[in-house]
From TrEMBL:
Protein name listed in UniProt: Unannotated protein
Organism of this sequence: freshwater metagenome
InterPro entries documented for this protein: FN3_dom, FN3_sf, Ig-like_fold, SGNH
PROSITE patterns, per the entry: FN3 (PS50853)
Gene3D superfamilies to which the protein is assigned, alphabetical: Immunoglobulins (2.60.40.10)
Residue intervals of the Fibronectin type-III domain: 368-452
Length: 452
């Protein structure tokens, strides 16, 4: 059974009346006509598996680029899987449901006019590592991927997400109504009060770069400062940069990548002037950088520089969608997966192919060491041993075992150490933690007695 997830929709102008009915039918009606004879399944999922390296993605993008330039177009008309995905571009299957949460909305997402906070727990409520995902629909689009990663690593995933109210949009989008901006401001105030109470191991935030304040640099620096103070370390703040915007125009009116491909009968068409293209073209791919996206590119540059200056972790996903060279392209389909749900959001089917790459990009505190045990003991000493757990994608710099009462410790980079000077026949507990560059793990605790 296929269910639709509620998403923030991209806001673009409604086509004016001068767009003829004939052209509207051409743009929006040909989609069905093109696919009637091609689609034999109701599933919109691609057959591809997860990417394990950036090189694999870039190889597939390069193949698209070479074919496009050599033949003048790339056709997907004979690929029923791609055709089906384009037809169902806005449909999401297997909608995730939160496990619990404080005033948690059913899809974890606060509506645009609502100032309330929706704090949702999606995985492993008792885990010793908490990942907090914070932002607007550009954070939400990654939700299924983060759920997969949290389940893989045993993390607790918590979300704080709001429609049209990005993490760095501290006063919301200027293009929305005043009531929505006020709701966004109130929501931010609540979120920033709540974050320290959640004790997250890391906060990962994502926002649409569209409608960011004119000085995006200052807004990003301010946000990074707030989160760094809340967590006590910039290294525990992760900025997940925005995904590409794919807006095409026919007759001066914006259309989605799906509508563009439908207009072209499932073909991308090579446009040698794409880097300075004018209104009226519909090639259905975009250059990584061009005059058409100059405003967005400038905002991206401001955000990136702010994150570098703030010292936070950065995840830059653009190379997962585009060749990021000066003449690079961003295809609408990579291998056999259609990428775009609308102008500004990605389809979960493609994002899920990036699970391993995103997982490897997240550096967090390590999980607690496992199998803590007494290796040997005497009347005055205890030697402990343990096994290594997940290191949070950052090398373990050391372990510290602390014995109570008395506070005696031993430190090591190995998987065992000895504490001396204990009392014969004494009852003790030992707390063990691992540390990496992000911070210390939660303690692993074991009780024991020395020999008499």
């Amino acid at each position: 059974m296929m269910a639709s997830m509620q998403y923030e929709t991209a806001r673009f102008p409604t086509p004016p009346s001068r767009l003829s009915m004939r052209r509207r039918c051409l743009i929006y009606g040909v989609l069905g006509a093109v696919f009637l004879g091609l689609v034999a399944t109701t599933s919109s999922r691609a057959a591809s598996t997860n990417y394990v390296s950036l090189a694999s993605i870039q190889k597939d993008i390069t193949s698209f680029t070479k074919t496009l330039k050599a033949t003048g177009s790339v056709s997907y008309a004979l690929n029923s899987s791609v055709a089906d995905q384009v037809l169902h571009a806005t449909t999401e299957s297997n909608t995730p449901k939160p496990l619990a949460g404080e005033k948690c909305f059913s899809n974890g997402f606060v509506p645009i006019m609502n100032p309330d906070m929706s704090e949702c727990v999606w995985t492993n409520p008792t885990s010793d590592v908490t990942i907090l995902l914070f932002g607007d629909s550009h954070a939400q689009q990654w939700l299924r991927v983060f759920i997969d990663i949290a389940n893989l690593r045993g993390f607790r995933l918590v979300t704080l997400m709001h429609t049209a109210c990005g993490a760095a949009q501290l006063t919301s989008r200027p293009s929305v109504q005043a009531a929505a901006r006020e709701a966004c401001t109130t929501w931010h105030d609540k979120v920033f009060e709540e974050i320290p109470q959640l004790h997250p191991s890391v906060v990962i935030f994502a926002s649409s770069i569209q409608d960011l304040p004119s000085n995006a640099y200052a807004a990003e620096v301010e946000l990074n400062g707030i989160l760094t103070r809340a967590l006590g370390s910039a290294s525990r703040v992760i900025s997940l940069h925005d995904t590409p915007n794919q807006q095409f125009k026919i007759g001066g009116n914006p259309i989605t990548p799906a509508a563009c491909l439908a207009h072209n009968q499932l073909k991308t068409i090579y446009n040698p002037k794409a880097f300075t293209k004018k209104v009226g073209t519909y090639d259905c791919y975009r250059p990584f950088r061009s005059t058409l996206y100059a405003v967005n590119d400038a905002t991206r540059d401001q955000v990136a520089q702010a994150d570098v200056d703030s010292g936070v972790q950065v995840i830059e996903p653009m190379p997962w969608f585009c060749n990021v060279s000066s003449t690079g392209l961003c295809p609408p389909v990579i291998l056999d997966t259609f990428i775009y749900r609308d102008w500004a959001h990605m389809r979960s089917e493609y994002l899920e192919r990036l699970t391993m790459l995103l997982d490897a990009s997240i550096k967090t505190i390590p999980k607690s060491p496992v199998s803590l045990r007494i290796a040997t003991r005497t009347s005055t000493t205890a030697t402990f041993a343990w096994n290594k757990s997940f290191d949070g994608h950052a090398p373990i710099s050391g372990y510290v075992a602390t014995v109570s009462p008395g506070g005696k410790t031993c430190s090591t980079v190995l998987l065992g150490c000895t504490v001396e000077g204990l009392t014969p026949g004494g009852s003790y507990s030992v707390s063990l933690r691992a540390t990496n560059a992000i911070g210390p793990s939660a303690n692993k605790i074991l009780t024991f007695k020395t020999l008499r």
